[in-house]
Amino acid sequence: MRGSNLEHEDNIGEVILKIIKDYQPITTMDIWFELGEDDRYKGIISRAEVNDHLSQLGKQKIIIKGDNDSWKPIG
Asked: Which of 23, 31, 37, 7 is nearest to 73 (CA)?
């Protein structure tokens, strides 16, 4: 069961990164709304979880936070 949870976490990170690439720059709230549109994550992901994933992607230097809590990919 833990393996599937880790896989789910990886998928969320990938989906968040795709959203950022498609809609850059995009705010944390808008990313959360976009995830809510996806049936896989509708009603099961909190804004805190989105913040955690964004923080991890930022630490990995994949994305950067700009003005007004907006995110965009690096490079």
From this structure: 23
C-alpha 35/C-alpha 50 separation (Å) is 9
The tally of domains found in the chain comes to 1
Per residue in 21-52, pLDDT (tens digit) is 999 999 999 999 999 998 888 889 999 999 99
Reduce the DSSP state of residue 61 to 3 states and report it: coil
Whether the full predicted model's pTM is greater than 0.90, yes or no, is no
CATH code of the domain covering residue 18: 1.10.10.10
3-class DSSP state for residue 73? strand
